[in-house]
Amino acid sequence: MRFIFLGPPGAGKGTQADILATRWQISHISTGDILRNTIKEQTTLGLQAQKHVEVGELVPDTLMMGLIRQRFGQQDTQQSWILDGFPRTIAQAQALDQLLSILHQAHPTVIYFEVPPEVLVERLLARGRLDDTESIIRRRLEIYDLETTPLIDFYRRRRCLKQINGNLSLDEVSKNLRKSLSTSSF
Ligand code: AMP
Asked: Using alpha carbons only, what angle is made at residue 137 by residues 62 and 31, rounded to the nearest 5 degrees?
C-alpha cells in the first residue's frame, strides 16, 4: 500500500495520514515533520531549510530530494507508506518517479483532499503553529496554487488520482477515505 496525500495546507492530510498509518501499521512520511525536526537540530541542512519554512516558501527541490532519498533508504519504506506533503512541485513528482523506479516500487495511489480556501485560512489560524500567522498562511496558499495544484492534473492524467471532500468532519473524511480506498480500482 503506497499513497501520496495531496492537498492544500490545512486540508487534514496529516491527521488522516496519522489515522491510516496507525490503523494499517505503515509509515507516515510527512516532509513538514522531517523539516521541523531537521530545523530543531540546527544542522546545516536545517538552517538552510529554516529560512524558507519560516516565511511560508517552499524548501528548494534539491534539498527536499536529499531528505526524501535519505528517508527512502530506511527499512520501513520498502513496502508500504503514506507520503504527506510531498511532492509539492512537478520537479519533485518527476524526481520521485525516478527514485521509485530505481527502488523497484510501483507507483502510489494519489489522494487529493479538496477544501475551499476560506475554510483553510480559518483552520490554519485555529491550529496556531509558528508558520500559521495570517500573512504566512496566505503566502503558503498562494504558493500551493502556483506550484502544487499542477500536480492534480499531472496525476489525474495518469489515472491514479482519487478525490476526497476534505470539508467535512474528521470522522466523516476518515470514513469516506477508507470507503474510497477499499473500493479503489487502481
Ligand atoms: P507542512 O507541515 O506540510 O505544511 O509543511 C510546512 C512547511 O515545510 C511548508 O510550508 C514548506 O515551507 C516546507 N515543506 C514541506 N514539504 C515540502 C516540500 N515537499 N517541498 C518544499 N517545501 C516543503
From this structure: 35
